[in-house]
Queue: 3 jobs
Job 1
Amino acid sequence: MDASEVAACWEANAETWTRHARSGYDRYRDEVNTPVFLANLPPVVGSSGLDIGCGEGFNTRKLAELGAAMTGIDIAPTFIRHAQEAEAAQPLGIAYQVGDGMALPFANESFDFATAFMSLMDMPEQHRVLAEAGRVLKPGGFLQFSILHPCFSPPYRKVLREPDGRVRAIEVGGYFGAVQGDVETWRFGTAPEHEKAKVEPFRVPRFHRTLSEWLNLIVATGFSIEHVDEPTVDAATAEAVPYLADLRVGPLFLHLRVRKPA
């Protein structure tokens, strides 16, 4: 699957994805993934940042609210349209444009830092994305990104529950399988049934790499690994929000911060 086919999938997803995410149905993002990502972020006040695969701009706005001068890029025009509409309604100084993370339309050493929230694992040639991020970062700049955890969310993942609903284990498979564009179909799990019935499920291309492949790509690009996190939830949160309880048993996400040599 090439970049144009990936772009077509995400453009088809973008309208429903934006509406459902903004309705609060992406609970992993809102209650775990983004808060942990931002808590691990170095200070960005007064820095220039690039959000790669920005979607409808939710996380880009969070970065701008922290004081960064943000640019957001995404391959889906509908995502960019929604992001620009949000910027017009509440200006934060964010510039959005349609573009490909594997061929960033920016000059060398344009940004102090870059982020990629749950987008790199959906791109066909991740080595090109990392190389492009390194190219547009200033010396000493960092890239912080989140992906599906290669070990605990490989092509097959199933949450096993006890009869009372408590999570017992995470069943995984296909870790070493080559996945280059297989399309997964799914929906936000907490979306109401009447909402799910109105729309087609998302079609998301998957480009799975093992953990060692990710780490070797990072090293080969010239980055140094600075911080790693595997977000979880505490027992009280798992009890209050059973939908998130699987994160107590095994991580769903992997966060990495890597830095370009000064």
Note: The mean pLDDT is 96.
Job 2
Amino acid sequence: MQIQVVKSKIHRVSVTQADLNYIGSITIDEDLMDASNIIEGEKVQIVNINNGERLETYAIKGIRGSGEVCLNGPAARKVAVGDIVIIISYALMDFEEAKSFKPALIFPDETVNKLK
């Protein structure tokens, strides 16, 4: 049996930009992506602390060290600049493997979106 478990989580970062006219996705500072083990093109869930919205999209690399967290395309309608979001990715794995799997969880400074 396989189950879906949390693989990566960026806990509480501030939305720095919302770009309705971009094709789609979420742009994330590459430092945050590396630290959380999220790769470009990976499906992610965005949970907005401010308004309760939940959505799925895919990650693209932002400028390393910029603190950038930008919701693009239709997702831009689900956030406001300054909203606090949680970014989560999941993995499908064997039930026994999942019992010992340790996800990459990071807790950046939400005021600047940088690792503490």
Note: DSSP finds two helices and eight strands in the chain.
Job 3
Amino acid sequence: MNIETEIQELKERLTLAERRAQAAEDYVAISNLQRTYGYYVDKSQWDQVADLFARDGVLEINARGKFFGQDRIREYMHHFGPAEPGVLMNHIQIQPVINIAPDGMTASGRFRALMQVGRMGGEGLWGDAIYENRYVKEDGVWKIASLRAYQSFYVPYDKGWAQEALPLMTDFDDFPPDEPTEAYPVYPEIFVPPYHYANPVSGRK
């Protein structure tokens, strides 16, 4: 092997190592971004939530419709009101599956949210949702390009998922969306939110 060939191979290996290192950093950044979303939602920090979205971001939670753009997302989130004593709103973000585009500028992620929602002396619920989200690196920073949350179930905490389940949460009557969302089955029915990825072993979609 001559010196020119060896140098070229070293350059290629270095380029590959840099790409892998950047992809690892991007994975951590996106995972932290989504988890940060959950912490802000927990405490009704709606401006902090809206700031996580890209300028032309899209928000779609359960069957309440789509909201386009950071300003509309901010307005939608504030519709839930400020944090109040005795209100529990835990949105635990787990099970990330993140796939970053080859150009390193966009990504897709699937997460699960385990939720504890309720009010002292009032209603208490367990909840579960699946996120299928897109992310974009805007101005050098990873942001949420679209957040799509599919309600899996809401059930009374004292009865659990063995005795009672609530229906799909639909549009707010007093806060219409920019675009409606098509309804889908929730527990106890079976519904699998579409995966953004193929099977990593078989390649089947």
Note: The chain has three helices and six strands.
